[in-house]
Write a structure and sequence with these properties.
By secondary structure, this protein is an alpha/beta fold. The chain has two domains: about 5-100, no CATH class; about 125-290, Glycogen Phosphorylase B (Rossmann fold, 3-Layer(aba) Sandwich), CATH 3.40.50. Helices cover about 25% and strands about 20% of the residues. The chain contains ten helices and twelve strands. The chain has helices at about 15-20, 30-40, 70, 95-100, 130-135, 155-170, 210-220, 230-240, 250-255, 285-290; strands spanning about 5-10, 25-30, 55-60, 80-85, 140-145, 170-175, 180-185, 190-195, 205, 225, 245, 275. It has a six-stranded parallel β-sheet with strand order 9-6-5-10-11-12, sandwiched between helices. Helix 6 links the parallel strand 5 (about 140-145) and strand 6. Helix 2 (about 30-40) packs parallel to helix 8 (about 230-240) and helix 6 runs parallel beside helix 10. The longest helix is centred in the middle third of the chain and has 13 residues, at about 155-170. About 35% of the residues are buried.
Length: about 300
């Protein structure tokens, strides 16, 4: 479906849409960082209150090539311009920011004038039949097995075992995700993301069928979420869905081992959530987690 927001593939301080903006939003990093921004600051939720004569300019400097979808069919999309120039490695450098026409201090150029409100997602209309089919037929466990950092993606055997256990507990299983390639300009790497598909009875596969806001709706309405340490993990924690996270060794050492559960591990130890590393994971831990979710 054609986006309703205006999309621009580059950024310049001389863009008419930037010069004529009422407010701006700046997004940097991966999709998980974008979700953390949405739930930590009011610039996205505040779009709901835009007056008819106000215009928002979104500088989308994300690793994720599809972040623009979060604005493309928004209720206020005809008042939004999204520039997606790729990731700026110097985004925290005050001198660089000033040279680009941005506020020298990161965060000060973002529209935080509104009170924090609920975060709503707006998928395109052609995804609504898919979403009704997924969400309207009883409780399900959503799976997000793949991360853009391929080292964090779940081993196939973990996905298969967890899915079988969810089915045995009476839940439907819905596989989410998207296959795509992208170029990391800051290091010259070409990255190919490949989702894990399962050809077994009872699996519902919406991989490559939903945008980011459509996938967010699937996560929002799930009875639980099985995920790697990824953007969808962050989203599930923000949405307070029961979440079982299976994390790679690098993420375990960096975020999970100090038992503080802060930063990129902020939701791991909340009631209803559980986590394991690739090495320590066993199927019984999934069963224990599922036992705490209300049964269909």
């Amino acid at each position: 479906m054609t986006p309703r927001a205006k999309l621009i593939p580059s950024f310049s301080k001389d863009l008419p849409e930037y010069r004529e903006r009422t407010y701006a939003i700046e997004l940097y990093g991966g999709l998980g960082d974008v979700f953390n921004h949405f739930y930590g600051a009011p610039c996205y939720s505040g779009l709901e209150g835009l007056a008819e004569n106000e215009r928002i300019f979104v500088l989308n400097s994300s690793h994720n090539s599809c972040v623009w979808e979060l604005f493309a069919w928004h209720r206020k999309a005809n008042q939004i311009t999204v520039a997606s120039p790729g990731f700026f490695v110097h985004f925290q450098d005050p001198a660089w920011r000033a040279s680009m026409g941005l506020h020298p201090e990161l965060g000060q150029g973002c529209a935080h004038r509104w009170p924090m409100g609920p975060v709503a997602y707006y998928p395109p209309e052609d995804e609504l039949p898919i979403l009704r089919n997924v969400t309207g037929r009883g409780p399900y466990i959503a799976f997000a097995a793949t991360a853009s950092d391929t080292a964090r993606s779940l081993p196939r055997e973990h996905v298969l075992d967890a899915a079988a256990r969810c089915l045995s507990h009476g839940f439907r299983v819905v596989l989410t995700g998207r296959n795509y390639g992208f170029h990391e300009a800051h290091n010259g790497l070409e990255i190919r993301r490949r989702e894990t598909r399962l050809d077994i009875p009872g699996i519902e596969d919406v991989i490559d069928r939903l945008t980011i806001p459509g996938t967010a709706k699937v996560i929002e309405r799930a009875a639980g979420v099985v995920t790697c340490h990824s953007a969808i993990c962050m989203l599930a924690w923000h949405l307070k869905r029961p979440t079982f996270s299976i994390v790679d060794e690098g993420a375990r050492k960096m975020y999970f081992d100090d038992s503080k559960f802060e930063g990129y591990a902020f939701g791991a130890n909340r009631p209803g959530n559980a986590w394991a590393s690739f090495e320590s994971h066993d199927g019984a831990s999934v069963d224990r987690w599922l036992a705490g979710i209300p049964k269909p």
